[in-house]
Amino acid sequence: MLFHAVLFYLFSFVLIGAACGVIFSKNPVHSIMFLVLAFFQSAMLWLLVEAEFLAIVLVLVYVGAVMVLFLFVVMMLDINVEAVQRGMTRFAPVAIGVALLMAFELVQLIWLRSRAGAPPGGFEAYPEGYSNTKALGSVLYTEHVYAFEIAAVVLLLAIVAAITLTMRKRPGLKVQNIAAQVAVRAKDRLRVVKMDAEKKR
Amino acid sequence: MLEFFANLVPTSILDIWNSLPPLVQYLTIVTWKILFVTIGVILIVAFSTYFERKVIGSMQARIGPNRVGPIGLGQPFADVIKLLIKEVVVPSQSNKFLFVIAPLLTLIPALAAWAVIPLNDWYVIADINAGLLYVLAITSVGVYGVILAGWATNSKYAFLGAMRSAAQIVAYEIAMGFALVGILMAAGSLNLGDIVRAQAGGFSNWFVLPLLPLFLVYWISGIAETNRAPFDVAEGESEIVAGFHVEYSGVAFAIFFLAEYANMVLISSLTAIFFLGGWASPFEGLGFLKPVAEIPVLGLLVVGGFHWLFIKMAFFMYTFFWFRATFPRYRYDQIMRLGWKVFIPVTIVWITVEGVMAWFKVGPWSGLAG
């Protein structure tokens, strides 16, 4: 148990440090790498409460795909550090307002939980051989199938909307006709010419 | 396994071992397991560079390395020593910290993924239930090293290489993940050891035939994930010099090199585990071969074990080199087209077919609960 506590505080401190790093680093690429670190640490925290499916999926989806695309976009920006800093002071009141609101909500939640009398022992350990991937899968496609399908449709809609919003139809756009490229044979492009050997003078 | 070692060592040492607390015993065993696997992977990497040069050499009617040691076997070590004593040049306009850390970010996931790979029936460092998910998650992290190397170098060539590699790896990861969904459906488990056990009983029970489209998609995507020819546009010598590692030299380059080959060995082993029955022998199901298993050396061919995983892995490594010597580099838009418009539809169709077959209880996975 002590080992768990030490790990919990280690991961939490690194998580908070990384989260601060996201905000305070001046270079957006550094911010993203701090965010990746923060995701990893929260995955570790989830592993500590034996939610290994969620932990691994967090790394797989957010670190492996979403943050790569973030990095992809951010790297292409021409970063002007001074302009970024000026923006920071301009938006500071809004940011502080949001932060205060979130802190208030969290405190309220904790206060409500403590009144209801949360179990002091924390989470119960699962029995040996328990797979929470299986447990999640067995309810996701049966009990919660409608919510799951609706979420999928909303995501699909978002994809289509994002593409239609950013797609620009330019006149004179050249596209490749893949079928025509595949159908090409050597004799369409190449003509072998037979010639008599020239006589040496 | 422990009984086997217990017979080898004298009883006095065994007494000391038994007096240790269980946690210390556990940590000692795990540390040794990790050391064995890591050193094994690094040695395989070293000799596969030699193997590659010999294979490609013979395919192009050359001799290949033959100067250092007998038939050139010392060549990998000569190369490593050369790289280690060379100077590491850090470009002055680069982002120093990310430039130095990027090679490590590619190497660490390539080695960390070995934690869940079962080498035979009992030798696996961490026998976890979510092994397949762990492999997917860890290998998807490796792309950061390539992207950051390209960006931190502050060079146009390196940056182009990083962009290409990021788009390519994200595209093929999806096809790979879908191919693994098929494996998961057929084996009914995420544990890599259980996936191999589900294929026990000879060649006809391996997933390679019933899941042939997924096997092809997984294997080709694996080549694309490791940035090997014919998908090596991230390096593309003729277009962008050396791509993301254009400014890397000495040890830093050696680490990139090690990571690339470690990833190749990893993908080869994973393909063997998922589709070719891992450590299982192809002759397992044949009854008339039972007496052969008693013969000292020949019997090894009938009984499953690490040697079978190694043979399958070596075969896939050979095809890596074979492809490199055979195919010209893909055009970039064709790579994207293949990943998004060919492989992903193929996997989705085959997963549907598999689901329908499992529902009507036909095929090798008919034993699964529909």
What fraction of residues of chain B sit in β-strands?
A: under 5%
Helical content of chain A, roughly?
over 70%
Q: Report the mean per-residue pLDDT of chain B as an integer.
A: 83
Q: If interface size is counted as residues with C-beta under 8 Å from the partner's C-beta, which chains form the largest one? A: A-B, 22 and 28 residues
> What does the main sheet of chain B amount to?
none
Largest sheet of chain A: none
Class of secondary structure makeup of chain B: mainly alpha
Tally of extended strands of chain A? 0
- Summarize the helix and strand pattern of chain B as letters: HHHHHHHHHHHHHHH
Oligomeric status of the shown chains? heterodimer
List the helices and strands and how they pair.
The complex is a heterodimer of chains A (201) and B (370).
Chain A (H helix, E strand, L loop, with lengths): L1 H23 L3 H21 L3 H24 L5 H36 L15 H9 L4 H22 L11 H6 L2 H4 L12
Chain B lengths: L1 H7 L2 H9 L2 H38 L15 H11 L10 H17 L18 H11 L1 H10 L3 H32 L4 H7 L13 H14 L11 H4 L9 H26 L23 H4 L3 H21 L5 H28 L11
